[in-house]
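Protein data sheet
==================
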Amino acid sequence: MSAGPESTHVSSLLKGDSLHQQVLASFPLCDITEEDLTQNPQFCKLLATLSQHVDQNGLTVPLKAELEKAEQKLQSQRRHWLRSESLHKGLQEMIQDHCIRKHHATVPPDQSMFYETMEKCLLVAQCVRQLDPSSSTNQDQPSVLGLNPQQVLELMPSEKNVQRMKQGLPRELEKHLKKKCLSLLAYYQPEWENESEGLKNSKLSHLSAQLDTEKKRAESLKETCRENSVLLQRQTQLYLSEVIKCIQLLQSLILDHRLRIQTDLDRKKLDYFEGKCDLVLQKIKTEMVEIQLDTYTVDSIAAHRKIREKLESELKACQVEKHSVGLKLASFEILGKEFEALADEYCRLRRDIEMNNWALKEFTRCKDK
């Protein structure tokens, strides 16, 4: 297999400094950057060679030729369909305009006959097309309402009226289309609406060329916009990659700087917190002293001192009494369990005596009442 032209092309590209830009321009839809091509030179050569066999959309040269041929055929069929469809729409618009005029003014009988004949012909032709299966449909399909095209053709107007309608149709259709073209001209260039008929006709003859120029200009602007969009996307990727590199560099600088000053920063923070803790402790002590000064005045301190002395004397007396009672209990414990039973009996009798005394007092008080 000979690779002479391809190798010659690649070598010619490698001689220049814009190989990467040419590859990126040849494949604008690929998400690759110049850095990717720099890191992968063999892949860059492969893309440079591949660009001779495919277009910017990834289509091969034979496939692109077939696609263009199919596109031309499609455009031809589309123009044929649009021609017949626009003619049909124009005839329907003429019929609608006639119906509107008929409701607002008196229409001559021959003109009414012309439009009625045309409307009937259109309806019959539409029905025949619906009933007559084409080559792409099933020939055995059921008919609508049991009708066939021949039966519908019998509803056509008389041959005389049809011939008369056909003779006047080109003139009426020309008037209608000219009216629509003038409306389009008035919409496209409103300043020409009040000009003379001849000037409008002259301007109308150049309208299609102007519209074609405007269409080509719009397509050119759209293509330029698409190229600018691709370029903007590529530049955005480059910008983001550079920003990421800058952020990583800043992070490394910040980390190194932080590690160097971390010890001094920790020591300063420790000194700060120690000083703040001492200040808070001194403030707490000050608040406690202020609370004590506000709570214990000279009179309250003297009163508390007297209360303390009295409580201490009572405490001493209670301690002496506790000591004597403890000695008595110790002497009683020497007597053993028999004395404990007598003590319990004594306590029970004391409770009974107290209960009887209380009952006697209550009885006496109730008796006196």
